[in-house]
Amino acid sequence: MRTLCYLFVFRLSFSGKAVHRVFLSQGQEAFFEGHLHAFQALGGIPRGKVRYDNLTSAVARVLGFTRARVETDRWTAFRSWAGLEVFYCAPGIDGAHEKGGVEGEVGRFRRNHLVPVPDVTSLAELNAQIDAWDRQDDQRRIGERPRTVGEYFAIEKPLLQPLPEDHFETGRLLTPRVNRYAQITVRMNHYSVPVRLIGRQVRVLLHASELVVYDGRTEVARHERLPTRGGSRLDLDHYLEGLLRKPGALPGATALDQARAAGKFTPVHDAWWEATSRAHGDAAGTRALIEVLLLHRHMSHDHVVAGIAAALRAGALTSDAVALEARRAAEREGSGEAAPDTALGRIASPVISLTERRLAALPPDSRPLPSVAAYDQLLRHTRPTAGRPTS
Q1: Which of 51-65, 329-343, 349-363 bottoms out in mean pLDDT, i.e. has the lowest?
Q2: Global confidence as pTM
Q3: Same domain, yes or no, for 12 and 99?
Q4: Which domain holds residue 77?
Q5: Distance between terminal CA atoms of the chain?
Q6: Pick from 319, 335, 351: which residue ends a domain?
């Protein structure tokens, strides 16, 4: 599925070296994060003027036909922190020639690296490829220049000023209130938080690619930012305490569907859930599954899945058995022992069945199999039919 993304470009005029970054939004937080990534990739901050278009992330209002601008508060704070000396281009077509270098770089990079559209599984994977392409572009020559971009940048790099020692928070702070569905609304999208926070106001740091939710100073949730509007990002773990009281809500839960799609709720979970519900009933089986899901909070996902598989093989349909086998899987991994196969249909289990062990120790039984033939003689004796009463 294609996703609309936005390309940030920061280019040095002398060497022509450019740094690129892709974001899901073109908001101010992406604008700041792009700068920080560029400064870190370049190893410093330019000392001279940096040219900017009149983008809304930096400029709140253009004052007539002059170079004067009313800047946004956060942009003023950011450029003061970084020590940037800015130069705003003339608005409209009059200023098109003033930023031709970076606009030409956008087209060159898109044609050479983004056509056809890259097929990646995540934004992080795409940005990793872009970083590799930026390093490869150090070997190219611009026009008739006698040296490569990398060679010119080696001359330019010592002239950059160092990065500030203190950190600048690029995220935007929001304070939404948690609704009755244990969700907050950020940029017209819904994100889940733990159910214990229903009705409370939380703090959200909105970044370009993710958002972090805090209750006071404690981080309580972290979500990948949704690229569209009207969507939802729900974490099944946030609802487990509520589902323990109402287990019937789990089978149709949207959070469960998203957990399956993300690979967090595996076919092994489903197989154990089905077996437990068949043995103990739907409500009790679902509660046992929720207790197993709670193990993911303090044990790794792979260890819990291995524990579920081992318990399912042995027929031990309790959360305690899963916890025991998950700890054993963690111990095997620490000792370097090969992990058992957890694929459905070939679930290997180290659990020893006591029934099989006892039967194996018994001597062979030479007695004949029981028979019910002696009872067949009763079939020859029929009950006499009662006569009709006489008048």
Answers
A1: 349-363
A2: 0.77
A3: yes
A4: 6-159
A5: 92
A6: 335
